C-alpha cells in the first residue's frame, strides 16, 4: 500500500515563532532541540512555557490554515456519492487532511493485508480489553500457547494412563 502521508520531521515543532510574529515575521518556523524550541532568528522558548505564551496570542494562525492540503501529483479526480451529514462530519473530523485521509483509507481498502473490524465485533473486542491489532495478535498468540500446553498435558496424561493400564494387565 503506498504511503500517501509524508513522514513527520522529528526536529520540526510545526509551530511558528510567536516572538518573530510579534516582531513582524509571522512565518518563522520553530524547531525542537530537546526541551527548547528555537527559530532561525535565535529566539528560544522552553517547551513548558510555550503553552502559556501561545495562550497570550489568541489570533495565532493554526498550522491547518497554513498547510495547503494537496493531493498526490498522480491523483485523479473521482466524484462519488455520499450523504451530506457524512461529508460534513468527515470534513469536521479530518479538517485540513480530508484528501490525504480519504486517499489513504481507499488504498487500505484495496490492500489484502488490511483487516477492518467495526461495529459489534469492535465493541466485543474492546469489552475484552483489546483495543488495537497488537493486542489482538498478542491475545491470539497467548491462546495458541495455552492450546499447545494443553495438548502437551493431555499427551502426558495419556502416556501416564497407558502406563497405569499396562501395569494392571
Report on the architecture of this protein:
The chain is of the alpha+beta class and 169 residues long. The protein has 3 domains: 1-67, no CATH class; 68-114, no CATH class; 119-168. The protein has helices at residues 18-22, 47-55, 63-66, 84-93, 98-110, 119-127, 133-168; strands at 12-16, 29-33, 36-38, 44-46. The longest helix has 36 residues, at 133-168.
Question: Which terms would index this structure?
Answer:
169 residues; 4-stranded antiparallel beta sheet; 7 helices; 4 strands; elongated; alpha+beta
Described by the principal axes of the CA atoms, the overall outline is elongated
Mean pLDDT: 82
Individual helix count:
7
Would you count the extended β strands for me? 4
Residue share in helix: 40-55%
Give the SSE string. Answer: EHEEEHHHHHH
Main β-sheet, spatial strand arrangement: 1-2-3-4
Largest sheet: 4 strands, antiparallel
Multimerization state: single chain
Q: For the terminal residues, how far apart are their CA atoms?
A: 65 Å
Structural class: alpha+beta
Rg from alpha-carbon coordinates: 28 Å
What is the number of domains? Answer: 3
Low-confidence stretches: none
Strand portion? 5-15%
